[in-house]
Amino acid sequence: MEKIVSLCKRRGFVFSGSEIYGGLAGTYDYGPYGSLLKENLKQLWRQRFIDERNVYPIDAAILMNSKAWEASGHVSGFSDPLVECKKCKKRFRADQLENPNACPECGGEFGEVRQFNMMFKTQVGATEDESSVTYLRPETAGGIFVNYKNVVDSLHPKLPFGIGQIGKAFRNEIAPRDFIFRLRELEQMEVEYFVRPDAWEEAFEEWRTLMRDFATEIGLSAGQVHELEVPEGDRAHYSKRTIDFEFDYPFGRKELWGLAYRTDFDLSAHQAASGVELTYLDEETKERFVPHVIEPSLGVDRTILAVLTAAYREDEMGGDTRTYLALPSKLAPIKAMVAPLLKNKPELVAKAQEVRAELQKVHAWIAWDDNGNIGKRYRRQDEIGTPFCITVDFDTLGENAELKDTVTLRHRDTGEQERLSIEEVATRLREALA
Ligand code: GAP
Predict the structure, then answer these.
(1) Would the pTM of this model clear 0.85, i.e. be above it?
(2) What is the pLDDT averaged over residues 305-322?
């Protein structure tokens, strides 16, 4: 874990939030490569979970009318058990203590366990009374349920259909920990998939398969991902069936994603609380009913940590230990690096720039690195997971006529090199990103 955290900071993936002020617990900032990696992950999710399915995207507000969170059960029930040490006054999550009878910091005695609501409360507008209280959304799902009717009325989708969104969610976790695993400000990628009440099981299996396939596509091997049938007592208040997708993180097997059957709990609750009808009229059968919901919910940050964990590798190369990230090309922040063999030869530099411009027609994120020797440039790119490095040398310029307009293509995982024409390199890149 330390190695991953250190690489993330050293190479500009993830930094502590507000670092120059000593940080802010439970917040992290994504640096240039981290934000590119995150963007690539979100794009791939959008493609698989929205674009290729009958799922409509939305982008709902983070601040919502507090009545929505009362109706959804979050005001009364979105809480974790909290205990406070009587001696040092530190607070802990009661269900995460190794010894529930002694404070891990000072050995002191605990007070009574109480429920701590995890929603961040805030005030909307200039008045500071109960009527202006609202919450930062604790799940993006809330914004989807309150827009169900808007989507039905404006796009008239046929059941089954989904509504999905990516966005920030906020949870005042008692004990944020494990780097970007448990955050107070997090990001989620969620779909609420609306089905006929009798069709939920089939839909549940469909989304389960899709989640498995997505895990494979982003580089998580089947051996690292485990599906846990969550027992009734441990499920969220809205769920009749939940499968947790767990991942073998460096600190243990922990929840990565959730797949839940939320029944008609949310739509019925919002219908009752708002007085607005949230039913669906089946035009063929003329039946009117509240749809049931299957919810695949994926945390962006936990996925990034799983992707980094799965991709992190060390091996021996050229007599040295090398660190590299075996990221799938689609996720890699930088797709290829182009370098002239020598940076003080203008004709090499000019040709290398030409090659880079050619590859940028395939993808914008083609790096340029002419610092230090070639070996150092490769190591830098290996650490950020760049799949290909391309070197332009004197043969490219035609010193050896047979090799004119060819370059060296080096592969990240094996270090193997091959001589290819510039067009062939562009094709390889296109294929890797397809
Ligand atoms: N809408 C359903 C929902 O929010 P959840 O199991 O509470 O269900 C879904 O959260 C996913 O969001 C989790 O599987 C995880 O990936 C992510 N997540 C939840 N709490 C998190 C936290 N404090 N920090 C980072 N990610 C978190």
Answers:
(1) yes
(2) 95
